[in-house]
Amino acid sequence: MKHMNLFAKTARVFAGVGFAALMALQPLSASAESMAGKTITIIHNASPGGSTGLGSQILANYWSKAIEGSPTMVVQSVPGGALTKGIHAAMNSKADGTTLGYVAWSGSTRILDEPALQIEFQKLGLIGGVGGTSQMISVRTDTGSGVKNAEDFVKLGKIKFGGYTVKSMPSMSFAAAFDMLGMEWSFVSGFFGDTKINAALLRGEIDAGMSTASYFRTQLKDGVVKDGEVLPLFYLGHPNEAGTGIIKTDAYGDVAVSFDEFYRNATGKEPSGPAWDLIKFNGTNHEPVVWLIFAPEGTPADTLKTLRDGFEAAVTDPGYIAEATKLFGTAPLITRGQGIIDKVNDVQNTSEEMKDILRGYIGRLKG
Amino acid sequence: MLETFFDGLQLIISVPNIYYLLGGIALGLWLGVVPGLGGVTGMVVLLPFTFGMDPAAALAMLLGMFAVVATSDTITSVMLGIPGTIASQATVIDGHAMAKRGLSQTAFGAAFACSAFGGVLGGLAMAISLPIAIFIILAFGSPEFFLLALLGLIMVGAVSGNAVSKGIAAASLGLLLSQIGYPIAGDSPRYWFGNISLLDGLPLVPIVLGLFGIPEMMDLAARRSAIAHIDDKRAENDSIMHGIRLAIKHKWLVIRCSLLGVYIGMLPGIGSAVVDWLAYGHAVQSADDKSEFGKGDVRGVIAPESANNAVLGGSLIPTVAFGIPGSGAMAVLLGALTIHGFTPGRNMLGENLDVTFSMVWTIIIANIIGAAVLMLWGKQVAKVAFINGNYIVPAVIMFIFMGSWLWSPDMFTWGVLLGVGLLGYMMKVGGWPRPPLILGFVLGPIMEDALSITYQAYTFTEVISRPTVIVLGLIVLGVLFFAIRAARKKNSDFDVEDTEVSRDSLYLSSGMAIGIFVVFAVAIWMAVDWSMLTKVFPITVAIFGIIMVALVVVDDWGRLREFAIARKAGDVTAGGTFAEFVKANQLQVNTFIAMFVMAVLTPWIGTFAAIVGFAAVYMVFWGKFNWKIILIYCAGISLVLFGLYDQILHTPFVPAFFMNS
Q: Under an 8 A CB cutoff, do B324 and A199 touch?
């Protein structure tokens, strides 16, 4: 048959498409009654392999076992859009509990975004938060005429430090800390990740660089710090209840002190003022909840309760804590229940005064 | 040290580690062949399975898989003209041309032999370089990265053939496209037009697959024949062994490009996306006779394939020894090392040196086994060049679309894929070389990041007094001098694109130049009020681009005038007719329209039905196959979508509208 008539062609197309439609139903159908036999997709918003991706995978391994019916949990990376694509993918998915978000939410700086980029996190079915990593800063010991201790550092009077972006909370917080110490500073942006900051520090492109606790413990402490090439200075973190200092952590051992202690030693004064407020804002709102776990808005209350109960059981499992500690370098700080709802509301309701302080620092970091 | 080196071998060949290594190799060979997948996908899929495994077995499987992806990705580049992975982009130019001439086995033989050599050299270089690597890595700061990227950009001349102004204009467009999204030193995104999908810029995978894959499939669908469509007497000698002999004949090129791969791989952030172009450019520039490049010169296969396998050994050095990952895959590997209790850094060169050496052995063994398997299998694969292209098109289009979707699951991604695909086809018809656009797109962020950090971190005097800057600066000037001389003497008189020049192809080319001119002008207009570091790069690129597109228009109009003179002299067929032009491109455009309809229908009927439906329509109207074949083919497509993309890769499909309520 050289020329097929239109009817025969159409019939063949319909056969193929009909077959396709039948097949299409297979992978996408799921029971709505029970979590047993369901597949829950956890969307994270970073590239695969980093602490966001691996952290979500570890949680998924324990969470799936902690939910009644032991549903299958798969982790999916939706990076891009300055972390917004993954958030949107999770929040716009079907609100039946089969798609959840485990996202680096950057809530404390996202509130400064233009309206088109704002996200109403408080409307989501909030389940929990994972965080607790703190940031510390180290300086090259050959900076200026040499830095052997905290006193030498402050005497430098001027420092060139490197960080992620002009809009990252740690960059703003360390700039605020240098202001409080009365030091001039310049900022080099564009080092996306601890490894790149460390490489720039070793190459001498910057005098000082920030790092997370886990990176400090796994990479710097027994390497360049031990060899005397780099001197750890101070760390930032969660403020105490009175707001007079930072809660001490053993993540850095005895080689670094909290900023408030460093500041008192250097100036003899108690920390205060707008720069200190910014540091406390970082410690209160950024570091405790780096990753937000949520279900889309409109998820049925029963399903949400099942997911929250499962989350509670998973994050208190010693196996999860051990694996997460290995990954983050320090035990994860978990926020759950009403705590996560309050935290998100606090961030979303940040005062205009604090927003102005943050905007001021962004402007100065841009140079 | 030597004892520990062989302890590493013992670790790898012991049971069950060797089985995991072989499993990884098998997976890697397969991942490389499928467009849009590749090593990072494999790492991500495998990583969760390794959590409970013995660390040595886990690393053997992950690295074994990753090491051979750059070997098997050659198959798609050669057979289909679509880069299997980012690392094999440059292989497309001459590799696919060889397949069209019936020389695919020769291309495979040369490519696999070079890949094995490059991979083994990379592994050995890793072992030897560990003690001195820190000096190399620390010597290269942001100013050096900028110069290296600039060196890569100068290769535009080498990958443009005889269309230098079009090549530079395409590279400028690539550079400008790379400027979309958040800049390195700013807090507001550029050129994002309120679309969040543009905040991080355009995704690389859809750009590469769109630029090369879509036009090739449009052409193959229109030809209604097999891939090999040119009678070539050389095809009589086509064999894997012939390819190996050619690789041996060009041994110094293999060695030079392998070393280039190792040392570029060692520099974080440059990596495999660039090295194959650098190697290809080097092959063209160092060749006495350049006339066969673009038409199927085996040196155009040897150079990139030697370099891209050697990159892994180089990129493992900063990852393992200093915890500085040079690429996305290395970032995943770094995560794997952490999960398995290893601390990348100095103790990998001390107490865990045997594990580090086991990685070296993994690379060496995997590259040898991978190349050997492919050489044995290559003869069978080469037969694909002679089967009916209508069997190939729907399946490859599925892999192109799903491969893009996998990296960025969003209808916008398919929009980019189709948009760039159409642009790629127009470039092909208009005689614009496509490789420079990719080169510009890949190098843009590297150059801007390096420039921005250099500006923020160094004074001018500090930059020009760095010995490495002086050496690299001289190399850049030397290469630029030879590139300009070659362009002026028309030494590179070869076509990168297989374009039939006609009056209408020149009109199309000029129309594109004017369109791109407008894009550059708008880009400048939008950027003028931005901060210094945010605007300097896009404005510079756009100004340069405007000059180049003006030259393209002048060049095209000069050639149009030649046709006009010939017509006046009585040759009424000079430059062809519009009807001939339409006829030559109509079937290709029909295929594009079918793909476009598939994408438009997806939000309504869902990903699954859209792709299988496209395959069915294609098999009926283009292939004219019978019922049985159509059903079996659609079942196969469905099975891949379900088994691979849904069940294994957990790709989020767009559900049909009636399933979304």
A: yes
* Closest residue to A85, CB basis, from B410, B638, B653: B410
In a domain, B122, yes or no: yes
Q: Is pLDDT at B605 greater than 80 in this prediction?
A: yes
At residue B346 the predicted structure's pLDDT band, cuts being 50, 70 and 90, is: low
What sign for the dihedral angle of Cα B588, B644, B379, B210?
Answer: positive
Across the interface, whether the CB atoms of B338 and A218 are under 8 A apart is answered yes
Of A302-311, A358-367, B124-133, give the lowest mean pLDDT range.
B124-133
Which of A20, A116, A187 faces B638 most closely, judged by CB atoms? A20
Homologous superfamily of A135-285: Periplasmic binding protein-like II (3.40.190.10)
Q: B652 CB near a chain A CB, below 8 Å? A: yes
Among A3, A19, A103, A365, which would you mutate to test the B interface (most chain B Cβ atoms within 10 Å of its Cβ)? A19
- Shared domain check, B262 and B374: yes
pLDDT recorded at residue A27: 41
- The two counts, helices (H) then strands (E), for chain B are 26, 0
Name the domain boundary from B499, B521, B539.
B499
Distance CA(A191)–CA(B331), nearest Å, equals 15
Q: Which of A218, A229, A326 is best to mutate for the B interface (most B CBs within 10 A)? A: A218
Residues of chain A neighbouring B630 (CB-CB closer than 8 A): 12, 15-16
Q: Are residues B116 and B207 in the same domain?
A: yes
For residue B599, the model assigns a pLDDT of 96
Residue B478 touches partner A, C-beta closer than 8 Å: no
Instruction: Say whether A17 sits in a helix, a strand or coil.
Output: helix
Is residue B356 a part of any domain in this protein? yes
> Residue B571 domain-assigned?
no
Q: CB B189 to CB A82 under 8 A? A: yes
A28, pLDDT greater than 60: no
Q: Provide the shortest C-alpha distance from residue B398 to chain A (in Å).
A: 14
Which residues 308-337 in chain A show a CB within 8 A of chain B?
Answer: 323, 326-327
User: Would you state the structure tokens that stand for residue B84, as one six-digit string?
Assistant: 């299997």
Which comes out higher in pLDDT, residue B228 or A38?
A: A38
The reply to whether residue B659 touches residue A28, judged by beta carbons under 8 angstroms, is yes
Say which of B187, B331, B453 has its CB closest to residue A205: B453
Structure tokens at A303: 């399903």
Q: Which residues pair with A295 in a beta bridge?
A: A125
The 3-state secondary structure of B285-340, one letter per residue = HHCCCCCCCCCCCCHHHHHHHHHHHHHHHHHHHHHHHHCCCCCHHHHHHHHHHHHC
**With an 8 Å Cβ cutoff, is A80 touching chain B?**
yes
Nearest CA in chain A to B656: A24
The residues that bridge with A125 in the sheet, in sequence order, are A295
For residue B365, count other CB atoms closer than 10 A to its CB. Answer: 24
Residues B531-585 have pLDDT tens digits of 888 899 999 999 999 999 999 999 999 999 999 999 888 888 888 888 999 998 9
Q: How far is CA B148 from CA B110, B154, B160, B451, B457, in A?
A: 28, 10, 19, 12, 18
- When divided into structural domains, chain B yields a total of 2
Minimal-distance CA residue of chain B relative to A196? B324
All residues of chain B having their beta carbon less than 8 Å from the beta carbon of residue A166 are 185-187
- B573 lies in some domain: no
Domain ranges, residue B487: 2-225+239-499
For chain A, the domains span 39-131+288-350, 135-285
Q: What are phi and psi of B573, to 5 degrees?
A: -90, -5
Q: Find the closest chain A residue to B320 by CA distance.
A: A219
A221 touches chain B (CB under 8 A): no
| Residue that finishes a domain, picked among B484, B499, B514 | B499
Question: Which superfamily is assigned to A39-131+288-350 in CATH?
Answer: Bordetella uptake gene, domain 1 (3.40.190.150)
User: Nearest 10 degrees: CA dihedral of B518, B521, B523, B529?
Assistant: -150
